[in-house]
Here is the input.
Amino acid sequence: MESTRPCASSACRTASKWPTKCVLAALFAALSSASTVYAQRPSPCTSAAHRAFDFWLGEWQVHGANGKLAGTNLITSAHAGCVLRESYRTPGNYSGESINIYDASRKLWHQTWADSSGLLLTLEGGLQDGKMVLEGRVPGTGGSTVKHRITWTPNADGSVRQHWESTDSNGKWTTAFDGKYTRKTSP
Here is the structure.
């Protein structure tokens, strides 16, 4: 008497499992080779222009022009060296973060900054005489526009000066912050 069950023979059962096993094997092989190809591909962010802001990498103590500790800043490399990530903190609950990247298609640096005051600031620029200079605009009061310019200068002693300027209501540049970054030492 024949079985009324579909695929009762061992050959049929084996054949019915074959497509699933083959699909899984093919998927595994494809993923393995894709990750191998990706791992062998060099980072697209190794040019001198991509490395121009690397002097800012590190863990820093930031002191204001008055010499007092303004905060700490951690600048790390992320995403295969294509991005600099900033995390700034002060002793008094103010904090902010930025993402920095060299845009090779436009040949300029871009920074997006957001902080605990609600400020969103986008800056763009590049190296000028060995200094990183980024500029941007935000809406001001009464329909005006406030310009921002931040200049990072690497110093011979390994410190970095950050000079943040913004325009006043008359369009005159004034210093918003003038700080010195020194490498953070272990406590």
